[in-house]
Amino acid sequence: MSSHTPQLFSIVPGSTAPIYRQLVDQVRRLVAGGQLAPGAALPSVREVALQLAVNPMTVSKAYGLLELEGVLERRRGVGMLVADRPVGMGGASGAGERLALLRPTLERAAREARELELDPDTVLSLFNTILKESP
Amino acid sequence: MTALPIQMRGVARRFGSKTVLDGLDWEVGPGQVVGLLGRNGAGKSTLMECLLGLREIDGGSITLFGESPAALSDATRARIGYVPQKSELFDWMTPLQMLAYFKALYPRWNDGKVESLMDRWGFDIVMRNKPIRRLSGGEQQRLSIIRALAHDPELLVLDEPVSALDPAGRRDFLTELIDGVIERGTTVVFSTHILTDLERVALDVAFLKDGRIVLEGDLDDLLDGAAHHVAPGARTPSNLEDLFIEVTR
Lengths: 135, 249
What we know:
The structure holds 2 protein chains of 2 kinds. Chain A has helices spanning about 20-30, 45-50, 55-70, 95-115, 120-130, and strands spanning about 70-75, 80. By secondary structure, chain A is mainly alpha-helical. In chain A, strands 1-2 form a two-stranded antiparallel sheet. Chain B has one domain: Rossmann fold. In chain B, strands 5-6-7-3-8-9 form a 6-stranded mixed sheet, with helices on both faces. Chain B has a 3-stranded antiparallel sheet with strand order 2-1-4, with helices on one face. In chain B, helix 4 runs antiparallel to helix 6 (about 135-150). In chain B, about 40% of the residues are buried.
């Protein structure tokens, strides 16, 4: 039943964001960006826990929060699905919200840039280059 | 009400004039997965050894599932698994002999699990019949973990269980911990200096310093809290490593 890539999520232990929060942010981004369409099934808690080598309770916690937010829906006998109309994730009008999802990552990058004493223009031109690179 | 897996009250332990545990209070509830953190020499191994009745205490009281570790019933002993930091015991035996010896001591022994772990963790026919002292540090540690998991314990105490393992071995261990141990609701207490591994599996952490548990709590809450309560002008923390340095300084 899994139509997604084998490794949907990735986590970085040792960062300032706890693992559950990294998972929540990633699901929000994937849903906002359309990689996870409404009705798409998420891998089971156990699958994610084993793939990432993290405690299953941590994955449950992330899924539970996303369900509360209305991003995911628990469907009996099926598991977790992307909600039909995920809250706050609608089309072009959601551009502002999608941008907001990028903010934590950019804040982190900005902090590191300051720590490295790089000037803003240099950093921005690097970011521009990266944006234009094909994935 | 069933007794807690671990309850420690005012536990003291001295070595000569050095006080290692100084009126330590600590409780671990059923199904908790707790990382025990502390600097080198903080007394993590001593705490674990006292907990399991391997060392006497100079004061206070300890119970494991309601019983004193010094006088554990066979039934309660069978509910506990322990991986010591380093074990030279039984090192003249081969892995097969050692496992057969332990199997005879326990009422329950999961042969299927032992066989599958031996198989997955590289114990081929040659290695199974080699004296344990001639195995590498990592191989000995893997064997020690297999022995501790073999009787499906309800409480698992792990003292630096991955210190001799390479990254692939550590990942195999974490996977087994997640799938074969945590999934069964086992209570787990483990110490490690590899904080990224700890963050993956521990839901709670406890910091040992100056002979006491100075901070304990839900790891996510501690990390969220640390990020949100930064003194103005302070370096913006805070991951687990920052927290460790801050708390144990």
